[in-house]
Amino acid sequence: MEESNEKERGEGAVAAAEDESSGRYLDLTSFQLHDLGEVEIPEGLVELDLTSNRLSSLDPRIGLLSGLRKLSLRQNLFQDDGIEPISTWDAISGLQELVLRDNRLTKIPDVGIFKSLLVFDVSFNEISSMNGVSKVSNTLKELYVSKNEVSKIEEIEHLHALQILELGSNRLRASDGELTNIDKFTRAVARTKPHQGCELVRVKMYQKIKPAE
């Protein structure tokens, strides 16, 4: 019965894609899919939304979508090894938005292949360190790392285009030296990008950060 239900959901997903303009956007939100075996994935996709499913591994067909710009894997069951293949998928290197929110990641995945990345969301995981952020493209405008286990702010100095950095609900207890470095970073951003977004960086970075005792 479960197999039959998944097939029906897959067929419904195909219909949903066909309803979108030119099949460039596929929304599979809340289909409770364990895999995409029964789902047709159009080659011309620009945006793929797989939010709220039961996925734990990446379908290799996603790695062939050369026009893909937005990929959401939010609220699934991905662990670190389930996401690793994405770091080698050259065909989708033009990706601009990657959402891995609410999974089971324990580290920042390698996304260095995405040279035009604008939005990167790894909030609501089990990430203990910001190690790996240094590989994120300096084109990034929004970085979400809230609701993890991060204890130290690091590897963000190169993100000069950053407008939003969310770090709330972590284990941050910054020393005076770290707070000074953050302040220097926000001032540097303000000099290169003098607009309202820079103030947002400052607010989000200080959210729920406790000074070290």
Outline of this structure?
The protein is an alpha/beta fold. It has helices spanning 2-19, 80-83, 176-192, 196-206, and strands spanning 25-27, 47-49, 70-72, 97-99, 119-121, 142-144, 164-166.
What overall geometry do the principal axes of the alpha carbons give? globular
CATH homologous superfamily heading: Ribonuclease Inhibitor
N-to-C terminal Cα separation, in Å?
57 Å
Number of domains: 1
InterPro entries: Leu-rich_rpt (IPR001611), Leu-rich_rpt_typical-subtyp (IPR003591), LRR_dom_sf (IPR032675)
Keywords: Leucine-rich repeat, Repeat
Region (Disordered): 1-21
Biased composition (Basic and acidic residues): 1-11
Overview of this structure, please?
- The protein contains four helices and seven strands.
- The chain has 213 residues and is of the alpha/beta class.
- It has one domain: Alpha-Beta Horseshoe (Leucine-rich repeat, LRR (right-handed beta-alpha superhelix)).
- Strands 1-2-3-4-5-6-7 form a seven-stranded parallel β-sheet.
- Helix 2 links the parallel strand 3 (70-72) and strand 4.
- The longest helix has 18 residues, at 2-19.
- The model is unreliable at 190-204 and 206-211 (pLDDT under 50).
- It comes from Iris pallida (Sweet iris).
- One of its GO terms (cellular component) is cytoplasm.
- Keywords: Leucine-rich repeat, Repeat.
- Residues 1-11 have a biased composition (Basic and acidic residues).
